[in-house]
Structures are given as structure tokens and as C-alpha cells.
Specification:
This protein has helices spanning 10-19, 29-42, 77-80, 102-105, 141-172, 200-207, 218-224, 226-250; strands spanning 46-52, 56-63, 69-71, 87-89, 112-119, 125-133, 182-183, 190-191, 197-198. It is of the alpha+beta class and 251 residues long.
């Protein structure tokens, strides 16, 4: 069995992985859905969202196996993170790197392995989205394309997680009044150390690196702009009536 080499940027890669603070976390629907779609798309009994740590591969989401992790030396994914291109092994028994791998000789008896690297904007490949089958075969062009899209979606979820963590940390790093923000119970404005009241987004913008966009929520539309809401509802009703009429004409 050929053990996977260590990437030349391993320390940076592990640092990037740690910034997501996801190792050991509980299952989440967003990631579970990605592995379910991967399994259904490729017609394989096993699909994994695998993160390659320093000495193990850990599965954030999985379909078709009970194991939560394996040692890194056995990991196909640890080979896949060396390239931005997917690693496709159509028959592991015929591949000199893997034919005597414990995951090939024993459960889950890997034959097909198709791993799609999870690569962030800094070109750090932290793991893979992979599908596994116990029968040898390849993937079609459409399956390859969908898997590449799903791997990008997984990275997008991870990046959103990281940004959310930084947002919470920025909030907690505020030092005014012992990390407590004084807000008005009615208008929700915040008071700074000089006693000035300002909207919360302006308050946070001055004290953190956060930026804000603005819109109007559904409840405020209903309360403050009932005429606009009435127009929208009338337009929606008209659209439904038109669709209903078109169906009757077709019938």
C-alpha cells in the first residue's frame, strides 16, 4: 500500500482547515444533503464529505457507512488533496497504490473511488467530496460535472460558517462597557461611550470590520407599507388567475 504524501503546504492547509472549526461537530442537514445528492447522482452506495486532518480523515457527512473516521495513511482522500483535479480510481484492485489497502481488502471493499477536492480561494485543499462503490466502474461526464458543482457548494457552506464565526468573534471583541452594548428597548439603537445613540449597524461598522446591506423585512412591509403589500398581493392573485385560465384553455 502506498501511503499518501504530505502536501508541501501542509501547515497552511491544516491552519485553513482549523479556521472552519468543524472537526468533531454534529451532523448538519446542509452537508448531509450534499452527500445524499452525490450518492443518488452517481448511483453509488457510499458518499462522504471527508476532511483530511493531520493523522486522520474525518467525515462531516456520510451515506452508506457507519465509521466516523479512518486513519490518514489508509485515506484515498489524502491522495486526492494533492491536485485540484478529481481523483478517479475505477478499480482499486487494479491500482498499485490501493490494491492492498485495508479499505479495499476489507470493508467497505472499495472498487470505485471518485474524490473531488474541497478547495478554497487560497488553493488550500482541506478534504474531498467523494463517492465509493463496491463494483468497478467510472462516472459519466454529467456525473463529473454535478460532483464538481456539489464540491463547490460544500466549500461555500464552509466559507459561510467561517464568516459567521468571525462575525461572532468581532461582536464579542467589543470592549465598550465590559463587552455589553447598551440598546434602546424601543427603537433598538445603540449608545456609544459618549452617550450618543445610533443605529446598530452604524455602531458595529465603527467598531468592527463588518459591512451591512439594507432592505425591508416582510413584517415591516406589512406594517409600514400596506399599500405596497396590497399591490403585490393583487399582482400575485392576477398571475394565479392567468395561470388557471391558461390551464383551462389547454385542457
Amino acid at each position: 500500500m502506498k501511503k499518501p504524501d504530505i502536501p508541501i503546504n501542509e501547515s497552511e492547509r491544516l491552519k485553513a482547515l482549523s479556521e472552519y472549526r468543524i472537526l468533531g461537530t454534529k451532523p448538519e442537514e446542509n452537508y448531509d444533503d450534499i452527500t445524499k445528492i452525490a450518492s443518488l447522482t452517481c448511483g453509488t452506495p457510499i458518499a462522504l464529505l471527508s476532511l483530511v486532518d493531520s493523522d486522520r480523515q474525518w467525515f462531516k457527512a456520510k451515506v452508506g457507512i457507519e465509521a466516523q473516521e479512518t486513519v490518514r495513511d489508509w485515506s484515498f482522500c489524502a491522495h486526492a488533496i494533492h491536485s485540484s483535479e478529481p481523483l478517479i480510481v475505477e478499480d482499486a484492485l487494479q491500482d498499485e497504490r490501493f490494491f492492498d489497502n485495508p479499505l479495499v481488502k476489507g470493508e467497505p471493499k472499495i472498487r470505485l473511488y471518485a474524490g473531488f477536492p474541497l478547495q478554497n480561494d487560497e488553493n488550500h485543499r482541506i478534504g474531498t467530496l467523494c463517492v465509493i462503490d463496491r463494483e468497478p466502474h467510472g462516472l459519466s461526464d454529467s456525473q463529473l460535472s454535478i460532483m464538481e458543482s456539489l464540491s463547490r457548494q460544500a466549500v461555500a457552506f464552509l466559507e459561510l460558517r467561517k464568516r459567521s464565526i468571525k462575525l461572532i468573534e468581532s461582536y464579542c471583541a467589543l470592549v465598550d462597557d465590559g463587552n455589553i452594548i447598551s440598546t434602546c428597548s424601543y427603537c433598538r439603537k445603540a449608545k456609544d461611550t459618549d452617550g450618543h445613540w445610533m443605529h446598530l449597524d452604524r455602531y458595529l461598522s465603527k467598531r468592527t470590520n463588518l459591512n451591512f446591506s439594507h432592505g425591508i423585512c416582510d413584517l415591516c412591509i406589512e406594517e409600514h407599507f400596506p399599500d405596497v403589500l396590497e399591490v403585490w398581493q393583487s399582482e400575485e392573485k392576477l398571475k394565479l388567475e392567468c395561470k388557471s385560465t391558461n390551464r383551462k384553455i389547454v385542457l
